[in-house]
Design a protein that fits this description.
Strands 1, 2, 3, 4, 5, 6, 7, 8, 9 and 10 form a ten-stranded mixed sheet that branches. The longest helix is centred in the first third of the chain and has 22 residues, at 2-23. The protein has eleven helices and ten strands. It folds into two domains: 26-121 and 247-315, D-Maltodextrin-Binding Protein, domain 2; 123-238, Periplasmic binding protein-like II (D-Maltodextrin-Binding Protein, domain 2, 3-Layer(aba) Sandwich), CATH 3.40.190.10. It is an alpha/beta fold. 45% of the residues lie in helices and 20% in strands. The termini are far apart. Helix 2 packs across helix 9 (259-273) and helix 4 crosses helix 11 (294-315). The chain has helices at residues 2-23, 40-56, 71-78, 92-101, 137-146, 161-173, 185-193, 204-213, 259-273, 276-284, 294-315; strands at residues 29-33, 60-64, 86-91, 113-129, 152-155, 178-181, 199-203, 216-221, 246-254, 288-289. It is globular and about 65 Å long.
């Protein structure tokens, strides 16, 4: 009798969840962005939100909740009701790196969130000034071997994807760079162009305008394939086979969000990612469009938490 009652309850709950998905959404959906307006994550989020609204008649509202390396925005989503009306654009830093980088984190990416879909990913670029003697990655590595610890590597900060990609490069090439962390690209770029640091590990959007104007030269990217906006720039993997270090972006919902709603969101976002305007906008930011299933995105997060944990520990970076 108990088993029949439990089975009946489970069936009723599934029916209610399915009905909720049929009626979903009947009010605005909040897309939390854990970074300030104007950055790559924000731009990508607004492009997807706009297409979801246009194509489906939904009202998707972007809300920026920056701070603490993206942790505040993720925490905002984790604490929201799990009814499908709050989702968040997470990325490599706050989902795969911060669990090891921060001593205390208010959320567990694998337990407190349910993946919806991987939206896109993009590489880190190695940039030097136009007047730099380093014309290629090989030149940079050769100099670092000749002068261990004297070639300066600028990054947007300790524990960032850019910093840890540089650590991975040092491991692959068997060299030691002197790490110089900055508080973002706006602080690092003047010193790079002025020759006060040797190279900069940077997101593609933060340097592509300066590369186009001739002020900077991109000598390598960290992705497995060449960047669509830096097509003539080789990958690190072309020199060190198997090398790959990217930052990815994906949409997640609070844990416990009904599976039919997650599936509906996944289907509609995958449709949006096929739109030429969305693809063009993401590629202009130096990224590539991904898509896929929630299960595939879950595996990526799990695998990257383990992979980046090793690099964080090697780097010695910690945030209290």
């Amino acid at each position: 009798m108990l088993k029949r009652w439990m089975a009946a309850c489970a069936a009723a709950m599934l029916a209610l969840a399915a009905h909720a998905a049929d009626d979903y959404p009947n009010k605005p959906i909040r897309l939390v962005v854990p970074f300030p307006p104007g950055g790559g994550t924000d731009i990508m989020s607004r492009v997807v939100a706009k297409k979801l609204s246009e194509a489906n008649g939904w009202n998707v509202v972007v809300e920026n909740h920056p701070g603490a390396g993206g942790n505040i925005g993720i925490d905002t989503a984790v604490r929201a009701p799990n009814d499908g009306y709050t989702v968040v654009m997470g990325q490599t830093s706050n989902l795969a790196i911060n669990p090891t980088l921060y001593k205390k984190l208010t959320y567990d990416p694998l337990k407190d969130l349910v993946p919806v879909v991987l939206v896109g990913q993009g590489p880190i670029a190695i940039a030097v000034s136009a007047s730099s003697p380093y014309k290629s990655l090989a030149d940079l590595v050769k100099a670092a071997k000749a002068k261990p610890g004297q070639i300066t590597m600028a990054t947007p900060g300790n524990g960032t994807v850019a910093h840890l990609s540089g650590v991975r490069l040092m491991n692959a090439a068997g060299v030691k760079f002197e790490h110089v962390p900055y508080k973002g690209a706006s602080a690092a770029l003047p010193d790079l162009m002025g020759g006060r640091v040797d190279f900069y590990m940077a997101s593609v959007p933060s340097i592509q305008g300066h590369v186009a104007s001739g002020q900077l030269r991109a000598i390598a990217v960290t992705s497995a394939k060449r960047s669509p906006v830096l097509r003539d720039t080789p990958t690190i993997g072309e020199t060190y086979p198997g090398f790959e270090a990217v930052t990815w972006f994906g949409i997640l919902a609070p844990a416990g969000t009904p599976a039919p709603i997650v599936e509906k969101l996944n289907a509609k976002i995958n449709e949006a990612l096929k739109d030429p305007d969305v693809r063009t906008a993401i590629e202009k930011e130096g990224g590539t469009v991904e898509g896929g299933t929630p299960r595939e995105f879950q595996k990526l997060i799990r695998d990257d938490i383990a992979a980046w944990a090793v690099v964080v520990k090697q780097s010695g970076a910690k945030v209290d």
